[in-house]
TrEMBL record:
<keyword id="KW-1003">Cell membrane</keyword>
<comment type="similarity">
    <text>Belongs to the insect chemoreceptor superfamily. Heteromeric odorant receptor channel (TC 1.A.69) family.</text>
</comment>
<dbReference type="GO" id="GO:0005549">
    <property type="term" value="F:odorant binding"/>
</dbReference>
<feature type="transmembrane region" description="Helical">
    <location>
        <begin position="143"/>
        <end position="162"/>
    </location>
</feature>
<feature type="transmembrane region" description="Helical">
    <location>
        <begin position="313"/>
        <end position="332"/>
    </location>
</feature>
<feature type="transmembrane region" description="Helical">
    <location>
        <begin position="198"/>
        <end position="226"/>
    </location>
</feature>
<keyword id="KW-0552">Olfaction</keyword>
<feature type="transmembrane region" description="Helical">
    <location>
        <begin position="52"/>
        <end position="75"/>
    </location>
</feature>
<dbReference type="GO" id="GO:0007165">
    <property type="term" value="P:signal transduction"/>
</dbReference>
<dbReference type="GO" id="GO:0005886">
    <property type="term" value="C:plasma membrane"/>
</dbReference>
<feature type="transmembrane region" description="Helical">
    <location>
        <begin position="87"/>
        <end position="105"/>
    </location>
</feature>
<keyword id="KW-0472">Membrane</keyword>
<keyword id="KW-0675">Receptor</keyword>
<keyword id="KW-0716">Sensory transduction</keyword>
<dbReference type="GO" id="GO:0004984">
    <property type="term" value="F:olfactory receptor activity"/>
</dbReference>
<dbReference type="InterPro" id="IPR004117">
    <property type="entry name" value="7tm6_olfct_rcpt"/>
</dbReference>
<dbReference type="Pfam" id="PF02949">
    <property type="entry name" value="7tm_6"/>
</dbReference>
């Protein structure tokens, strides 16, 4: 038993295969989500131009939904509920447009975060620390999978289930498929074939893109925040063995102190970079989803009165998807805050009295200042917590009551 424990604490060196496997464990799903949309960070080479082309195409697809629907809203709809019913999709379009812009704007910062994750995997030399990083990487992958599943469940119901349930509409000697996003007749009459099929197909691609952008933003927040939590857990393990050392740590106290300080600095820089990269995206997601939750909840109430079962189920799925999306953001913020609290607790539990001379004062000052900085920086990554999620739900219920009274 003792031999297996010692073996787990020994230093080791990763092979290239193991290194690539561990890196993919952290960022593979992010790459799959971001690369088709031209958002995955790549080096500045002559081959960079296809990404700009993809970005332009994606902007055009979002605009293809937003502009005709806006014209239809203000020029062709007269009743209040009809107008209100289009505000939800338009808000989602605006969210996707803004998030896509920020993802492009922060592509360099995303690349830097990815490189820091790679650096952490390359320079890990302790078996126990590697196990911690693998555990958190697997947790991050599960969060990404769950977020993507919920977002594309809403897409499948809203963009596919409703058109299939409604079927082709026959009117004025015309047969056409009803569009998910209304298209203004001031641009083109989409009731005629093949215009109807072409517009419907483009809207389907644009919808998949918008839900993909939301999934990509959520996956980045989950991956970076969970990786930061893993690095903080590694730091806590080092702090626990700072005084007596560990079989896989430096034999000299000065060396262990230097390792702890370097890990503090790496965590601080990664958290600061994560905050810079994701704060605007998180705020956009939080604000837009809050508004859409209020509107979609109102749609559920109104559609249930008309006994439209398919629409009710679809809007309930969308409501669950949006609510879960905000919950994930709040949950991630809660996890980061909890890890920060643990660092503070462990720092004060160290037997500082066993250090001699200036080392005691020096270590206390460094770790105390670093812990305060970690808490401040980590708290600004998403600025959300479980209590914030509860406030969102209460706000949504309040606005639903207001909407019901106005109608």
């Amino acid at each position: 038993m003792e031999k297996s424990k010692d073996k787990a604490n020994q230093k080791f060196y990763l092979t290239d295969y193991e290194y690539q496997k561990n890196v993919n464990l952290s960022i593979q799903y992010n790459r799959w989500l971001l690369k088709p949309m031209g958002l995955w960070p790549n080096s500045y080479t002559s081959k960079d131009y296809p990404y700009w082309l993809i970005n332009i195409v994606c902007y055009c697809l979002i605009s293809f939904l937003f502009i005709p629907c806006t014209l239809y809203l203000f020029l062709e709809i007269e009743d209040f509920y009809g107008k209100l019913k289009q505000f939800g999709p338009l808000i989602f379009c605006m969210m996707a447009f803004v998030k896509y812009y920020y993802l492009i704007f922060h592509k360099t910062d995303i690349r830097e975060c990815v490189e820091r994750i790679k650096w952490d995997w390359r320079n890990i030399t302790y078996a126990k620390d590697r196990e911690i990083m693998i555990m958190y990487a697997n947790f991050g992958r599960k969060l990404v999978m769950v977020c993507t599943f919920f977002m594309y469940s809403g897409f499948a119901f809203y963009y596919i289930a409703i058109p299939i349930s409604v079927g082709r509409v026959k009117t004025d000697n015309l047969t056409f498929v009803p569009l998910v996003f209304p298209f203004s007749r001031f641009i083109v009459d989409t009731r005629y074939s093949p215009t109807n099929e072409i517009v419907f197909s483009i809207q389907l691609m644009a919808g998949a893109l918008m839900h993909g952008i939301t999934s990509a933003a959520c996956s980045l927040v989950a991956t970076f925040a969970v990786h930061a939590c893993g690095q903080m857990q590694v730091l806590m393990n080092w702090l626990q063995h700072l005084i007596d050392g560990r079989l896989d740590m430096d034999e000299r106290l000065d060396g262990r102190i230097a390792d702890v300080i370097r890990q503090h600095v790496r965590v601080l820089k990664f958290l600061a970079l994560t905050e810079k990269t994701l704060q605007q995206i998180s705020f956009t997601e939080f604000l837009g989803c809050t508004l859409d939750i209020c509107l979609v909840g109102y749609y559920v109430i109104m559609e249930s009165k008309s006994n439209d079962v398919t629409s009710v189920i679809t809007y309930i799925i969308l409501l669950i998807s949006l609510t879960f999306n905000i919950f994930i953001f709040c949950y991630i913020g809660e996890i980061v805050a909890e890890e920060c609290r643990k660092i503070g607790e462990i720092s004060y539990m160290i037997e500082w009295y066993r250090l001699m001379g200036n080392k005691k004062l020096f270590c206390i000052l460094i770790i105390a200042m670093s812990n305060s900085s970690i808490k401040l920086t980590a708290g600004n990554i998403v600025n959300l917590s479980i209590s914030t999620f509860t406030d969102v739900v209460k706000t949504a219920v309040t606005y639903l009551n207001v909407l019901q009274k106005t109608t």
